[in-house]
Amino acid sequence: PYLVADQLLKELAERYPALELTQLNGTATEVADYVEQGRASLAFQFDRGDPGSAFAHRHLGNVAQGIFVAQGHPLAALPEVGRNDLARHRQLLMQMDGVDQVVLSPSVWRADSSYNIAAMVANGVGWAILPLNIGEYQGFSNELVSVRCADLFLPMLSVRTLWLRGGSLSETELWLQQRMGQLLRAGAQ
């Protein structure tokens, strides 16, 4: 979540002014690869299943999800949508190997980035279930509409940190984990 990450980096700069930092962004798979390759010592990601035996990981907090469509999408005009309404329109899904997802539409497109999916939704390509922090992100807030669907339960997305199993975390990394969890729990998403 960008608002949490922005606040975390601001506090990190104040707390550790001499720290040298390289921030890498990517899909859940890419950030795990960064850690496994030694390009990063610590990663934050949405929990999308077992990270693999190479990693130790810890749950930090949760982010709510919502159903989003473009402002001009036919579903945006409905006061509430049902599963049948959603099934009549293209669904945009996160591409994740080994993770079962709720597929409600016979027409599905996939991408490996929630931001790419949000951009497709904004362009009227289809609807998607997105983390609220992305669907309500300033870059999309004027283009996306959240729709209600009472018969679809959207669980919270777990945010976790991961690092190589057997590795020890520095004082800075331990502080990052703790503070990220605090910011997530405070709802600064």
Task: Explain what the structure shows.
This protein has 189 residues and is α/β, with parallel strands linked by helices. The chain contains 6 helices and 8 strands; from the N terminus they run ααβββαββαβαββα. It has a 5-stranded mixed sheet with strand order 5-4-6-3-7. Strands 1-8-2 form a 3-stranded antiparallel sheet. α1 (2-15) crosses α6 (171-185). The longest helix has 15 residues, at 171-185. 27% of the residues are buried. The mean pLDDT is 90.
What is this structure, in a nutshell?
This protein has six helices and eight strands. The protein is an alpha/beta fold and 189 residues long.
Strand and helix layout:
Layout: H1 2-15, H2 28-36, E1 43-46, E2 55-63, E3 65-70, H3 83-87, E4 91-94, E5 108-111, H4 114-122, E6 127-131, H5 132-135, E7 144-147, E8 157-164, H6 171-185
Parallel strand pairs: 4-5, 4-6
Antiparallel strand pairs: 1-8, 2-8, 3-6, 3-7
